Fold this sequence. Notes:
With 286 residues, the protein is of the alpha+beta class. It has 2 domains: 121 residues, no CATH class; 141 residues, 3-Layer(aba) Sandwich (Rossmann fold), CATH 3.40.50. It has an 8-stranded antiparallel beta barrel. A 6-stranded mixed beta sheet has the order 12-11-13-14-15-16. The chain has a two-stranded antiparallel sheet with strand order 10-17.
Amino acid sequence: MNDGTRPLRWIMYPNQSEKFPCRLFIEEKPGVFLVLAVQARWPGPNKKVYCLKEKSCTVQDLPEDGPIEECTIQDIHWYGKKLNVLLDRKTKKRSWFLFLKKEYKQKPGEFYDQIFWITQASIVTRRPGAYIPRVRQPAACEIIIDTRERYPYKFGYAHITRQNLPAGDYGLVKDGTIIAITERKTLDNFLHEISTYDVFKAALRELSMFQFRAVVFESPYSDFLNPRRVKPYSANYIADVLADCITSFPDIQFIFCSNRKFAQEWVNRWFQRINAGDEPFKVRTT
Length: 286
């Protein structure tokens, strides 16, 4: 995303087109620009700007005429079909470019590109929803359940195998490799394991072998601070232990659910999202 010597750039030039009066050059990586012909310099409230993609270019291909707007890019990353760009300025800094494929109505099987430029103002005003990865084929999931799980979670959409996992209780397999692992914990189980806290932390370190990792508690956080629920430990001690786990392993998600049912639901959906890859779909908000 950056070579470490200078920030990436966002450059706007005038364009000889009434319908697309501006050309936007977005530096995706040092010296390489994504080029879009755009209908406005910036989408206003309750508006989205349609864009046409041109060929990518290098620094040598930038127009000789001076730009009408230029600033540095603070952050840029792809999320599925959506390109998120955060500019290094106080206003008009957050925007998204959505890249879609649409089928021609009169030419079945043939597709064309649709690119929309959306900003924070248009998102807040219109509240169109969020673009998040969609579960493409849930039945294609392959999940390993550790043989030591006596009453395991149910994954109705997946192909299940039972075997000894190197870490955790549930593993998601993709392309023959375990890419996600979940450690399941009840409150009583957690209280038992912290009696040998160093061993428990060693088990958490083993989760770091995998790309995605999570520890899912089948009790809300408030239960861990209830003196009657955490005997013989004090609630203050348990709170410190949890804080130490979370800060010692920032790459692990620690999830507190109300009960087993919701913990199972969270793990199911977490595995589904990871398995789905980066195909986007639109979720409506109310």
